[in-house]
Amino acid sequence: MSQPWPPQQPMQPMPPAPSMQPMQPMQPMQPGYPYHPGGPGFPPQRRGSGVKAFLFGWLISGAGATVFAVLLLASYEDLSKVGLRIMYVVFALALALLVGGVAGKVGGPNPAAYVVPSLFAMAAVFLGTTNGFVFVILNAGGSEVFESMMENEPGAPAEFWWKGLKGGIALLGLAAAGGGTFGMASLVGRRR
After folding, report:
1. Best CA proximity match to 88, nearest among 13, 138, 96, 103
2. Of 38, 46, 56, 61, residue with least CA distance to 190
3. N or C: which end of the chain has fewer CB within 10 A?
4. Which residues have a Cβ under 8 Å from the Cβ of 64 and sit 6 or more positions away?
């Protein structure tokens, strides 16, 4: 007698289907070192934008220099030399807080993003004073006096900054603006 092809097997129950369990993520080769930037063994991720810190530092410093120059123009008739020096240092500190705060917020924990805004703040303190001097000359003497100054003494605004603020105070304002901006940006940037 011949057997049917393929040979018949007795009926067997089907094995149960494997339960559907979620896949476990693959574990790294070395336990304790997850694979993501910022974890142990990896440099921290830099958050923030140096370009934004540059842009905002430039805009705020430029606006601050203009505001200070206009303040000098508005108050020059009643302002004493001591009042000018105090106003200059207060302006430098206020500008440092403002520019540094914004640079730290947008620059994140990246110290390189604070350098240029610090330089902008220093330039704003200098230019605010010298532009204020020019505004006063134009207001008090008109364009003829201004033209004469530019022909005979083009460095008069810078000389006013140095001599009118007594050298040391002039440098103190620059240091307060630059160092204060960098310090404030560092404080704000670390907290982000």
Report:
1. 96
2. 46
3. N
4. 91, 94, 95, 98, 99, 121, 124, 128
Quick one: which of 68, 77, 101, 74 has its CA closest to 187?
Answer: 101
Q: Which residue has the tokens 């050298």?
A: 167
Tokens read off for 9 = 């097997």
Looking up tokens 């404030």 gives 184
- Taking the model in full, what pTM does it have? 0.73
Helix axes 168-191, 115-152, angle to 10 degrees: 150
Helix, strand and coil content of the chain, in percent to the nearest 5, comes to: 65, 0, 35
Per-residue burial over 53-64, b = 16 or more CB atoms within 10 Å of its CB, e = otherwise: bbebbbebbeeb
